[in-house]
């Protein structure tokens, strides 16, 4: 589904990614871990097509199609979803209106008619119940005055509604208490299928107790320096990253 080959990328003339190779198949969950400043959020932003980042070398293909030249909106319409570490507040735009617009824009890009209002309402209710979201929440302005947990739950609600092929969760666990973490992780697990894939970017092994990865990759100084199964995450939790840095010396 996603194939990244020798990817080099920079932001504001600073080299961040220095040769990333990664392959994600349908149905897989990949966790990306690493020390602060290693390039984890940059990798997420580059896959999603955030315009501040410049790809200098390498390729990104999604379902067999090269996407490096596509803008973020086009990538989203093809089924790539990025859950932000710090979601933006949009006063005056309700959660419901935002998601209706997003879905219908995606349908338009795929040559489909707008979703009938009755079907949209049914889908919104179904996904809100799945994620234990209060209906009153849906009429509030997007992320305005939301707690950290509410913002993250809203991101997963958007993911549930948009039903992407590839979901990238950029530190979705940051700032969450254990109850909010459980609800968010349960939502992700309910949305997983053999046809979609998830990339989880996290500092902490605790999220991976709930969203169990097939593969764990360690990113360090812009490169994936070690890959393994979920046991690697347990090892990192117990020993930190110093032992990996020493292996690289």
From TrEMBL:
Classification via Pfam families: ABC_tran
Descriptive protein name: Cysteine desulfurase
Gene3D superfamilies xrefs: P-loop containing nucleotide triphosphate hydrolases
Gene that encodes it: sufC
GO molecular function, one term: ATP binding
Keyword Nucleotidyltransferase: no
SMART domains reported in the protein's UniProt record: AAA (SM00382)
Similarity section: Belongs to the ABC transporter superfamily. Ycf16 family.
Domain (ABC transporter): residue spans on this chain: 2-246
Keywords, ordered alphabetically: ATP-binding, Nucleotide-binding
């Amino acid at each position: 589904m996603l194939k990244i080959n020798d990817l080099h990328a920079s932001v504001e003339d600073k080299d961040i990614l220095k040769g990333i190779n990664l392959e994600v198949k349908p149905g897989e969950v990949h966790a990306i871990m690493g020390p602060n400043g290693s390039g984890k959020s940059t990798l997420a932003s580059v896959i999603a097509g955030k315009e501040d980042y410049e790809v200098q070398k390498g390729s990104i293909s999604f379902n067999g199609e090269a996407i490096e030249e596509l803008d973020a909106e086009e990538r989203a319409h093809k089924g790539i979803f990025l859950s932000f570490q710090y979601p933006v507040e949009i006063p005056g735009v309700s959660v419901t209106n935002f998601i209706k617009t997003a879905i219908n824009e995606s349908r338009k890009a795929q040559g489909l008619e707008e979703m009938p209002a009755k079907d949209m309402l049914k889908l919104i209710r179904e996904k809100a119940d799945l994620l234990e979201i209060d209906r009153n929440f849906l009429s509030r302005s997007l992320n305005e005055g939301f707690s950290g947990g509410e913002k993250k739950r809203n991101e997963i609600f958007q993911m549930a509604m948009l039903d992407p092929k590839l979901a990238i969760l950029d530190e979705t666990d940051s700032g969450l208490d254990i109850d909010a973490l459980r609800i968010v992780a349960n939502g992700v697990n309910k949305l997983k299928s053999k046809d979609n894939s998830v990339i989880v970017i996290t500092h902490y092994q605790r999220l991976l107790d709930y969203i169990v990865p097939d593969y764990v990759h360690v990113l360090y100084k812009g490169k994936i320096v070690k890959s393994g199964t979920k046991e690697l995450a347990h090892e990192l939790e117990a020993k930190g990253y110093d032992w990996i840095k020493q292996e690289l010396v």
